[in-house]
Specification:
Helix content of chain A: 55-70%
Number of helices of chain A: 6
Radius of gyration of chain A: 21 Å
Low-confidence stretches of chain A: none
CATH topology of one domain in chain A: Arc Repressor Mutant, subunit A
Largest sheet of chain A: 3 strands, antiparallel
Strand order of the largest sheet of chain A: 1-3-2
CATH architecture of one domain in chain A: Orthogonal Bundle
CATH superfamily of one domain in chain A: Winged helix-like DNA-binding domain superfamily/Winged helix DNA-binding domain
Mean pLDDT of chain A: 89
Number of strands of chain A: 3
Oligomer: homodimer
Chain lengths: 120, 120
DNA sequence: ATAACATATGAATAAATGTTCAAATGTTTA
DNA sequence: TAAACATTTGAACATTTATTCATATGTTAT
């Protein structure tokens, strides 16, 4: 049994190799945190509904509020989160602010999620 | 101004059309909830780290605990969540329980997430 | 400048979530 | 059967989070 091996589950397996491969491919702590933060953004049905609206059109905050039957404040708070994670972008036009999707990953990620839950 | 149009942002736009298209393409409430629940699972760095280990090998609970330097109870709780959402599957072999990825969506979804955060 | 509209923000509250600890369950070996 | 090992589970605690309410900021028209 090699020096770095660890007793575990009585299997006395060589963990050296696993630990090495995992530590090579595992993103660093900051990146893992960012990744989790990104998926947290998708982990709320209000934000997903907002994204589904933006799949169809560029809309202003009060249109979103009306379409989703929620207060303008609640929508605005969620849009801020979506914007911080670069999933949506905004553009001011007079008194209104129009929001739209920032890039294509949004569609891909949600599509993969749907595929997964529909396969069950 | 058509009957169903709504005053919003003083734009007096035809919301009929948007509402119609959105309601056609928006998943129903249950599916939206499931979708959000799925992404919530990805929204925790401990679970993402578990998935990264499972990218490399089928491992037992105490291997995971050791590799990630966490208690086996914490790992077990998270594995339960991953299993409930069908992202991982398990197999008992003697006293140990081995976990592995359940399907390919896990890799795709995480890959898309990484692409997104690395593009910024 | 003032009023009206659209959006953003901060504080507060209620609900959800991850980890720890202790104890229970399931499996193998003596 | 009893003891040892691997995993699961439930309750408790601290932290995070989504919405609401009130208010502030920014823009346009009078």
């Amino acid at each position: 049994m090699a020096v770095n091996d660890v007793e575990c589950c009585e299997t006395f397996q060589t963990h050296e190799e696993l630990l090495k491969v995992v530590s090579e491919k595992m993103p660093n702590e900051d990146k893992l945190y960012d990744l989790a933060e990104l998926f947290k953004v998708f982990g709320d049905s209000t934000r997903i509904r907002i994204l589904y609206v933006l799949f169809e059109a560029e809309v202003c905050v009060c249109d979103l509020a009306e379409t989703l039957s929620m207060t303008q404040s609640a929508i605005s708070h969620q849009l801020k989160i979506l914007k911080q994670s670069k999933l949506v972008k905004s553009r001011r036009e007079g008194k209104s602010v129009f929001y739209s999707l920032a890039d294509g990953h949004v569609r891909t990620i949600i599509a993969q999620g749907r595929e997964h839950i529909e396969e069950l």
